[in-house]
């Protein structure tokens, strides 16, 4: 499946700062990409590293002033799924900052009692999708799964956090993935969950806003604390403009009853 995506960010740094950028797709031999970071008309150097979840990060030093970031990528094949390690299973079973599976354990056990495997995955996806309202701006960046459950509304990351917390409460490893999502409307970065079942990571998107088969992985982590597209240290850095695009040559029809995997 041929897919392409782009991201354009316009930032204003109020003083010297260190940026951590996460907009490039996960390492993929079939991807052709260009990343441009410019300040005062001159390209800025950056260093790339991998975090503990395998996410590509770009580290950038900036001065006060405007910074323009442009990224484009074309993907011509299916990405190879990352290897699953023992530490992955341990890491993604534990409660985390935004996925308080320990607090939600009684609720998860009562709501999904007796379910396991694919049946559990289907039930959790359906429950979260039908009991939350997708309301842009309704949640705070500090909201976790507990607050989302109480509010019964949120955006994609809130849906994913609640799915992850419920699954971990049933001893299913689960994690958050930020993606480019062809078919998403309105277009933006998107967040979905992945659950480890039957020896593989399976994509879970309780929002149903984009076909899972077209998604392109950007960042992977325990929750949104590990998958931010931009973070900074030092002086304040303001995000003035953000534009994201993602298209697929043929937009697949998603059969939510069938498993789907990300590379």
Write structural notes for this entry.
Helix content is 19%, strand content 37%. It is α+β, with helices and mostly antiparallel strands and 263 residues long. The chain has two domains: 3-77 and 231-244, Sandwich (Immunoglobulin-like), CATH 2.60.40; 86-227, C8orf32 fold. The strands form four sheets. A five-stranded antiparallel β-sheet has the order 4-3-7-1-15, with no helix packed on it. Strands 5-6-2-14 form a four-stranded antiparallel β-sheet, with no helix packed on it. Strands 12-11-10-13 form a four-stranded antiparallel β-sheet, covered by helices on one side. Helix 4 (145-151) links the parallel strand 8 and strand 9 (153-154). It is globular. It starts with a strand and ends in a 15-residue tail after the last strand.
